[in-house]
Design a protein that fits this description.
About 55% of the residues lie in helices and about 0% in strands. It is mainly α. The longest helix is centred in the last third of the chain and has 23 residues. It has one domain. Helix 3 packs across helix 8, helix 4 packs across helix 8 and helix 5 crosses helix 7.
Length: about 210
């Protein structure tokens, strides 16, 4: 794997090149993100079915899941298997997907292509405050999972610059780069299946440990 595909110094103190490091998020964007978290930019999804008494005792209902991208990332980190099942059934708010594309510095049309959903359909769902479900919704959840892994790499870094490192933008660049460990394929092109997502997630985690050089 080329050095350009490895987490840069701010995300991993052992990295030796700053060329792959994207610019830090501006203070204005940071403030905007904070307002989105505070105000709740996305409508919380409603569960399609009630949980059993046993399920209720094991985990809170999915309707309590957070409705912004940053808090959704944190939610999936701690979600129980039952909560993840509900998340997969409910799908991801279309507006959240557009927000994710912006954070990852990817054109919305490219994000829709990665998720396997037509632009017109995605735009219509965003306007209706609807959810992207099915295979496309699961691919969106997979991207959110990868974003959580990228942020964990940053959180675990001892580099002082990590506090200003834009993990989402770096991930957006990384998934668009062909990876030798994936046979020259881009991670973005493997997210349409659970197995592909699993392979990409393992590779991203391996970058943090230095398993791939």
């Amino acid at each position: 794997m080329s050095k350009a595909s490895k987490p840069p110094a701010a995300a991993k103190s052992a990295a030796k090149t700053a060329a792959a490091k994207p610019p830090a998020r501006s203070r204005a964007n940071a403030r905007e993100g904070q307002r989105a978290v505070r105000d709740g930019a996305y409508p919380a999804p409603a569960a399609k079915r009630g949980l059993s008494v046993r399920e209720h005792s094991a985990a809170p209902a999915y309707s309590a899941a957070p409705a912004t991208l940053n808090s959704y990332v944190a939610y999936l980190r701690e979600a129980t298997p039952l909560q993840r099942v509900e998340a997969e059934r409910e799908g991801v708010p279309a507006r959240m997907v557009k927000h994710m594309a912006s954070d990852m510095d990817l054109p919305a049309v490219r994000m829709f292509d990665i998720l396997g959903i037509a632009k017109a359909t995605a735009e219509a769902k965003a306007a209706q405050q609807a959810h992207i479900t099915g295979a496309s919704g699961q691919a969106a959840l997979g991207l959110i999972q990868l974003l959580g892994i990228a942020r964990d790499i940053v959180d675990d870094s001892t580099d002082p610059a990590a506090a200003e490192f834009d993990a989402a933008r770096w991930l957006g660049q990384w998934i668009e780069q062909p990876q030798a460990a994936l046979g020259g394929q881009k991670p973005a092109d493997l997210l349409d299946t659970p197995t592909g997502l699993s392979v990409v997630a393992r590779l991203l985690g391996a970058l943090a440990s230095g398993a791939y050089q």
